[in-house]
Amino acid sequence: MFLRRIFTQIILLLAMVLLISELDAQVRVNTDINLERPICVGGKFEFDASESEGDPLDAFINYGDGTKDTLLGVEAQDLQELRHTYTTPGVYNLKFKLESGGDKDSVEYVITIYDRPVADFTVDVDTVCQGQSIDITNLTTSINAPITYIWRYGTSQNTEEEPDIQFLESGLHEISLTAYSDTNICSSIKRKDVFIKEDTALANFTFVEGCPCNEFSFNNTTSNKANIASWNWNFENGNSSLDEVPSDQTYLDPGKYYVSLTGTDNDGCIYTRRKLLSVCPDAMDSIPLSKSNNRWYFGNEAGIDFNAGAPVALLDAAATTPTNEGRATVSDHLTGDLLFWIGDTEVYNKNQVAMPNGSGLINGFSSSQGQLIVPHPGNVDQYYIFRTFGATSGQLGLYFCLVDMSLDGGNGDLLIKDSMLIAPREFGAGNYRSEHLSGVQRTYEKCDEKASYWVVSSYIKDYANIVHYYLVDESGMRLDHTQNLSHTHAGGNGGGTACFSSDGTKYALTNTYWGTEGRIFLYDFDKRNGLMYPGPKIKYTITGSVYGICFSPDNSKLYVSANGGGYIYQYDLDEPDVFASEVVVNMGGSNKYTMYRGPDNKIYVAQFHYEYVGVINEPNLKGTACNFVEDGVYLGGSGRESSHGLQNLLPRYPSISEDNFSVSADFSAETTNCNEIIFANNSDNNIIPNPDSCAYPKYYSYLWDFGDGHNDTVMLSVDESINWEEMTYQYQDSGNYTIQLIVSSSFSCSKDTFDQVVSVKNLNSKGIHIDTTNCKGQNMRLSASVGVNYQWLPEDGLSCTDCQTPETLITNDSKYSVLITDEEGCKQTDSFNIKGMECGVYIPNAFSPNGDNDNSLFYMVSQGISDYQLQVFDRKGKLIFEDINMHLKWDGTYKGESLPEGVYTFYTEGILDSGESFRHSGNITLLR
N or C: fewer beta carbons within 10 Å in the chain? Predict the structure, then answer.
């Protein structure tokens, strides 16, 4: 029994040993693979199998892309760093198998390999000029398209495939391109350096306004002009010039013009300087006031009416849910009566009832400038409504509606409802719709050109603002072009407001970023071509989320509001550093939002859940003198409150028409004294049209062409034109002349021309205007041109006062004049001076050998001379006259031939009775 027990234990022990031996021989795969990390083409796929069991091991790896690895007789620790590179994107099944002593184990993985584009590009040259566009060629390659590009250069970035890159500062600059796959998981980067050549000849110029106010002269003040090979001027009046200093320029229409001077230097670098000039700015006042902006509806059933002058509360708003943000209302431009206004989802007519097709609009309750009303320049009954929605509205894109006020019995209805212009954008980091929606009048309405408008909307892509410019003109509405402003937004939405200055030359916007940092952007704006430049000027603020923005009426100040702390800031646009001029004109009270200029030229401020609208009463004044009042306009109580938005409208101005106003040109011309014309204005420009129905001129232009190569422009105000006095003009030569008068208004809306022929006779004035010198104590004969009657002045000392050739004794310097009347009654006055000298020697400076016996001989006048020689030479130095005996006088001939008029040279020398010698030389003028 005992032996059986021992034997059983031995058997069990042997079994355990055999079992342990078998366990040691088993193979177990234990790998460490991070499948959470994306793997891109060309990247290393790595895994670790060093924790596997079995010794020795045979490893077999199939990567799923047609490649395999086999490792025989290795230890587990040799499987620590296993790598493989996939060359093609796709999904692969990786199989890993281990064997040892007939035992084996395996594992499989699904591996996703993402496409990686290879960023590459070239630039045309290594050295370029300041401000010059760099020619970029994008050579990026990818197996799968599309590719997303991010270019970085200086402080700017761009997402175009081949962007327009410029550097404004000289020196070495880096351009980098990062190319992302369509999944934005894999990327590569390429960098290149370019050297920007320093400006050595910056183009620059000055200009001077002439008279009248639409004529300008230009002076090229470029430094180092010798480095400039060519010039190019663009005056924006249809003219250009390649001259270094151009001719004077005339502008037909008042307004703002950007003149540019471009200089190309000897290295091919191009430098351009642009300057703004104002043509007849007073003419802008001729545009009548529009009453389109006289009623506003906003907030919680609130409104303001400006028709009586001072704003009063409107109590008739349709009972709706509160309209928090962007609102717009339009009134009749002649009467100020309500046409329609826009709620969250309805367009309300003048009866505060939704138009038949005006309900169910896409909800726009939360967008800073969600609505903008723009009149149709080609149809007085129609208005465009632009609508945009921001981040909190679901990224609903940009839409437009078209309202026709002739429908529904004159109450209006929508012809087009929520037609999409820009598709919604998916919300994501750096990509969203902007809530900025603003516009400006592109041109002033004139007889020959209807008004047109720029509507500016934008979206944010990679935090950069992409601006869409919609042109609304007589033919309708269309997308004209886009522009990448390249400014960086603060963060996660496109909130804030934008506005234009009243003259359309500046554009500003705020970027709201709730609770952290807001930003202010300021641009110059080319109103004619629709472009922002240069810029931007940027202001960072941490005092709260900036929201409202508005220019003062005279465009000298910029106001910004903040929705935290009730801040209102003022910036002086005349200062070199605009944002350094910051003045806080209000702090505390309710949160401040939209700011909008009223028809009374005061700036009104929306205040959150407050029964008053704030008012900046004197917005043109600096600092706190602008006089902001928080309790500015009471909204009428009963729950009526301001909120975020106020108004967003481009007004319609009354039409200018030749039917309303025209000018006429007419004059009479009377000839006096044969060559003098007196004009009397008979132009009928005295009727001033009603300024409420038609724009009228502030001044008239009278352009005279006298037919003799001379012209004159007279600019007269309306009142001056009514009482215009006579004008006199004197002709120099006889003949028949066609006189033309062109009359136009200050806007060239109407123009009229009148012609008349006048006959002019002029006396022959040769022999007159010759001043002379003679010896004191000698007699001298005076002579006038041939006439019938003569009257000499002064009478003292003359042998006769009514003859043609009186004599006088030379005693001192004197001046004589004569009034000559010919047989036709033509009169002419002439005069000349006589200088009396102590002789000695006197040589005259002119004579006229024309046969009238008046100053017709050249000789030396002398006293007390014992000997002398006088010689006369022509311009080539030939001797043509000589006198050596003090008796000869030159008659203006050479070898019997009359010499032409001109300047000749004389030389004389001699001896005085005192024994002193003398020498004189100079010029003598021969007149015929």
Answer: N
